[in-house]
Amino acid sequence: MVTPSGPAPQYLKVKTHLREGIASGRWRPGERLPSESELTQAFGVSRMTVNRALRELHQEGMVVRVQGVGSFVAELNRIASTLTVRDVHDEIAARGHRHEASVHVLETVKATAEQALQFQLKPGARLFHSVIVHRENGVAIQCEDRLVNPACAPAYMAQDFERVTPTHYLLEVAPLSEARYTIEAEMPNLLEARLLGMPRGEPCLVVKRCTLSVGQVVTAVRLVHPGSRWFLQGSFQA
After folding, report:
1. Which residues contact 228 (CB under 8 A, 6 or more apart)?
2. 10-80 belongs to which CATH class?
3. What is the pTM of this model?
4. Which of 27, 82, 129, 134 is 20 to 30 Å from 18 by CA-CA measure?
């Protein structure tokens, strides 16, 4: 039996185990992952816990689930679709508009148990934390709440993020090799609502993204966009 360690949620332990196995090539594209029964027994958790881990990996495009058959590693073209990371400054500039940013938090923090698991560090390890609001022609459109691994970007705290975005800086010092994200509709917390100048009851579009460079987690970011001021647009061609 795999013995869970630390207080991190059990589903996250299962999810991390599978995700790291996929990233390392233990399970190749198209290969079947261990069954829910096998994972339930290995981790000593409920079937519901395992199901949540697999469901989130499916939502992130890393796993294909076939009812009555099992879960399989997504083909490379599906995984590659999660790797697009665009700089908000470039998006705004492409529309011919003016980008501005204001830094509200820039600090060093100690990783919680869950954050340590995500970054593959020990609880209490040092992380950089920033909260930045991005504006388009003076209107707040994004609140960026970001954690950064100091080992990947040791000079992060010395940057002027009103002149260069964290995304631009991080892509230069730690070239992207993998990205994982989820997109959800949520209500902003009190700080996000205040920084974005929006009513507490207005829903937001929230992108949660984790990026890696050569297998090492570089950053985890929560990007909050007021629903009335933002939309997602893209295209796909086979």
Report:
1. 198, 202
2. mainly alpha
3. 0.64
4. 129
